[in-house]
């Protein structure tokens, strides 16, 4: 088997593993939120960590982040997306903080 055939032979297994990990991370976040086992702050931090892990699983198992042969355009796109996300979150927090000081 050549390299291309080997990649395609493992394709369904990789998707099943990614799907299983996605389900596991989702169910852990739901169970943590529903159980009220911890205070609000720690629960939010853990859920945000699980969200980051979910993003990593999606990038590597479904979006084939590391399987590109050409230039690293996908890395540039990801960096721009991260910068935009940080700007939107920071702007939202800034607006919510300012709004709470006005009232």
TrEMBL record:
Keyword Protease tagged: no
Chief place where the protein resides: membrane
Transmembrane segments: 16-37, 43-63, 75-96
Intracellular or extracellular location(s): Cell membrane
Any Pfam family hit: COX4_pro
GO biological process terms held by the UniProt record: aerobic electron transport chain; electron transport coupled proton transport
A Gene Ontology cellular-component term: plasma membrane
GO MF terms held by the record: cytochrome bo3 ubiquinol oxidase activity; proton transmembrane transporter activity
Protein name per the record: Quinol oxidase subunit 4
Source organism of this protein record: Pullulanibacillus camelliae
């Amino acid at each position: 088997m050549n390299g291309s055939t080997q990649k395609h032979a493992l394709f369904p297994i990789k998707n099943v593993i990614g799907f299983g990990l996605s389900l596991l991370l989702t169910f852990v976040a739901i169970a943590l939120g529903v159980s009220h086992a911890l205070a609000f702050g720690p629960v939010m931090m853990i859920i945000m960590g699980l969200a980051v892990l979910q993003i990593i699983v999606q990038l590597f198992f479904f979006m084939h982040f590391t399987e590109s042969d050409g230039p690293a355009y996908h890395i540039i796109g990801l960096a721009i997306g991260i910068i935009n996300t940080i700007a939107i979150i920071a702007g939202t927090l800034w607006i919510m903080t300012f709004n709470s000081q006005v009232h």
